[in-house]
Write a structure and sequence with these properties.
This protein is α/β, with parallel strands linked by helices and about 300 residues long. Helix content is about 50%, strand content about 10%. It has a domain of about 200 residues: Glucose-6-phosphate isomerase like protein, domain 1 (Rossmann fold), CATH 3.40.50. It has ten helices and eight strands.
Length: about 300
């Protein structure tokens, strides 16, 4: 009997606690509702008007994620190149050891799981040398031809050529474009307005940048016959002695090839801008000299 009476008292006390907690919760909830009702709200006309839904013209437009990342990252130039950036682009991965070209031995760091690993220290040195060559060619008024015809290389080849006001071949190399350029390219060249009957004049590039030299044996042979220096990305399955300025790197990585093409075109653009500055400065000096001569004669 004592146990039953003790059980009843305990249950009664617990019920009293729960009811008190519930009443306290309801009091808090009612207070929140009252506070929300006390806040002034806008009229129905303002909510339904179209002007309130359209943001003002001063509101900044959201940028895409890709554009925001591209603007946040520091642009790659020949001066801030590092081995970590080359490795992130996959330029250290060569071909299988069964396809190894013995002439690439100085550029190979070792092998791992049957794949040759390229020493990126040599890649960095040769890439900077190629950038210096492209810069000097643009500084002296030469033209640069970018050649990249593999699937996925077309857009980056065109972008690199446009960046430095150069030329590009992104679809297919036409045999005879250099050795027989008057007949192969003459039909596509615009006629001379001063003498329409004369065959149009064609030009040959002063520097070639090959992004996939393995498929362009004819282009390399024509460039050698015309004494045109060649910058090429040479993988572990290609003989670097066949080109003038080899860059030991992976030629199958689209990101890596894009990085190399962008750095070389940026260096060429720098030389082009430097040339324009020198020409403008020379023109100003000539104007000053002519003005001094005219004042002396007067």
């Amino acid at each position: 009997m004592a146990s039953r009476s003790l059980y009843k008292t305990l249950t009664a006390s617990s019920r009293g606690l729960t009811t008190r907690q519930n009443t306290n919760f309801l009091r808090h909830f009612s207070a929140v509702r009252v506070n929300q009702q006390s806040i002034p709200t806008s009229s129905n006309d303002e909510q339904s008007s179209l002007e309130s839904l359209v943001p003002p013209p001063s509101t900044p437009v959201k940028k895409s994620l890709r554009r925001a990342v591209a603007e946040a990252v520091e642009p790659i130039t020949p001066y801030n190149l590092t081995i970590s950036r080359l490795m992130a682009a996959g330029l250290h991965l060569g071909h299988s050891t069964s396809l190894w070209e013995p002439a690439t031995l100085p550029f190979i760091f070792g092998s791992r799981e049957g794949i040759s690993i390229i020493n990126l220290e040599h890649t960095l040195v040769h890439l900077r040398r190629a950038c210096n060559v492209a810069r000097e060619v643009s500084l002296r008024g030469g033209s640069i031809l970018f050649v990249g015809t593999r699937p996925g290389f077309q857009d980056l080849t065109i972008d690199a050529a446009r960046r430095c006001d150069g030329f590009h071949v992104s679809s297919k190399w036409i045999p005879g474009a250099l050795t027989n350029r008057h007949q192969v390219l003459g039909r596509h060249a615009p006629p001379n307005p001063e003498d329409p009957g004369r065959p149009p004049k064609t030009y040959k590039p002063d520097l070639m940048v090959l992004l996939n030299p393995l498929e362009h044996k004819i282009a390399i042979a024509e460039a050698e016959l015309n004494n045109i220096p060649i910058i090429a990305i040479t993988d572990t399955d290609y003989d670097p002695r066949l080109v003038t300025y080899p860059i030991p790197a992976n030629d199958d990585s689209i990101r890596g090839v894009e990085l190399v093409a962008k750095v070389i075109s940026t260096a060429a653009k720098e030389g082009l801008m430097r040339r324009k500055q020198l020409l403008d400065q020379k023109e100003k000096e000539e104007k000053i000299i002519r003005k001094q001569h005219s004042n002396f004669k007067a």
